[in-house]
Design goal:
The chain has about 325 residues and is mainly α. The protein has twelve helices and two strands. It has helices at about 1-35, 45-65, 85-110, 115-120, 125-135, 140-165, 170-190, 200-220, 225-230, 235-265, 265-285, 295-334, and strands at about 70, 75. Strands 1-2 form a two-stranded antiparallel sheet. A hairpin with a 3-residue loop joins strand 1 (about 70) and strand 2 (about 75). Helix 2 packs antiparallel against helix 8 (about 200-220), helix 2 crosses helix 10 (about 235-265) and helix 4 runs antiparallel to helix 11 (about 265-285). The radius of gyration is 21 Å and the shape is globular. The protein starts with a helix and ends with a helix. InterPro entries: EmrE-like, Sugar_P_trans_dom, TPT_transporter.
Length: about 325
């Protein structure tokens, strides 16, 4: 009876964490869309908005580092981003992180929320390409077929967006670049984590600290200084509440993502993220009263199903490889 109670409690915990991930992730996308292209804020400075979100995340991480975390919930690791030795090791990854979140928000500015997932769906394909180029890791035929279907679904989605008159070339380009940077960031994170004692929270803390500096020249190059100088709504309480909510959401998504992986598994996280993207697309079409044809919906289904299958195939391959290693160890002992 006690075991059943513990199991029930564990399932409830997993359900709550996954639900929090869905709510925070979907809310973050809609809040960012409102900030980036909504008429209420009306600030044509997407990099400034992203920069402000980094400031909010950094401030939260800095406060947690001072207090040691939240008692009874989690412990924040000790560390400072201003150590020169660590700085030189982490900054190359921070450049990728900065470009990744910048292009993601620029993509969201120009494309609809319903197309946002498709616009950034090539991350898996880039993972396979860069894993082979940089790490010399081969990919199985079935995983490559999944990637081919993802590209096919992406192509259909772009074609249908153009047919429906809602296609944005610059937004799609930003989405592809964002997928590329996310892939590189994921690959190089593994090599940088030992420099921060394998602490994801420290890496997030340092990335946000360095991004605050790295965004400054990007804002200048994007011509946002004149936009910020001429903006008239700085006195608006609504504007700053929206900005603050966007920053808190940006921090929260990092926390709930790590928490979901911790209480479930990387595979479950991928499946949950894929299902969340599906729900997000449906909600967006209803929220913005968008009418999509069956071919457009087919492109989403192809990309979502192919991504989920790819995650499952990789999981099976990793399990098979781990069993082979154990078997070889046993043979050597014999």
């Amino acid at each position: 009876m006690e075991e059943q109670s513990d199991l029930c409690g564990r399932y409830i915990k997993i359900f709550v964490v996954v639900a929090c991930y869905w709510i925070v992730s979907i809310a973050t996308v809609f809040v960012n869309k409102s900030l980036l292209s909504g008429q209420e804020v009306a600030l044509d400075a997407p990099l400034f908005i992203t920069w402000f979100q980094c400031i909010v995340s950094f401030t939260i991480c800095f406060s947690l580092s001072r207090t040691g975390g939240i008692p009874g919930i989690f412990k924040f690791p000790k560390g400072t981003p201003w150590n020169l030795d660590i700085m030189w090791k982490v900054i190359p990854l921070s450049i990728m992180f900065t470009l990744m979140i910048a292009t993601n928000n620029l993509c969201l500015k120009y494309v609809g929320v319903s197309f946002y997932y498709i616009g950034r769906s090539l991350t898996t394909v880039f993972n396979v390409i860069f894993s082979w180029i940089l790490l010399r890791q081969r990919t199985s035929f079935r995983c490559m077929m999944c990637c081919a279907f993802i590209v096919f679904g992406f192509y259909i989605g772009v074609d249908q967006e153009e047919l429906l008159g809602s296609f944005s070339l610059i937004g799609t380009i930003y989405g592809v670049v964002g997928s590329l940077m996310l892939s590189l960031y994921s690959i190089f994170t593994k090599s940088v984590l030992p420099s921060v004692n394998q602490e994801i929270w420290l890496l997030s803390y340092y990335n946000n600290a360095y991004s605050i500096i790295l965004f400054l020249p990007l804002m200048v190059l994007n011509g946002e200084l004149s936009v910020l100088w001429n903006y008239e709504n700085y006195h608006s309480t609504y504007f700053w509440i929206q900005m603050l909510i966007g920053g808190i959401c940006g921090f929260a998504i990092g926390y709930v993502t790590s928490l979901q992986i911790k209480v479930t598994s990387p595979l479950t996280h991928n499946i949950s993220g894929t299902a969340k993207a599906c729900a997000q697309t449906v909600i967006a079409t209803q929220w913005y009263n968008e009418v999509k044809n069956s071919t457009w919906w087919s492109s989403n289904i192809i990309v979502l199903a192919s991504t989920a299958l790819y995650a499952r195939f990789k999981q099976v391959e990793m399990e098979e490889n781990s069993r082979k290693i154990v078997s070889d160890d046993k043979k050597s002992l014999v």
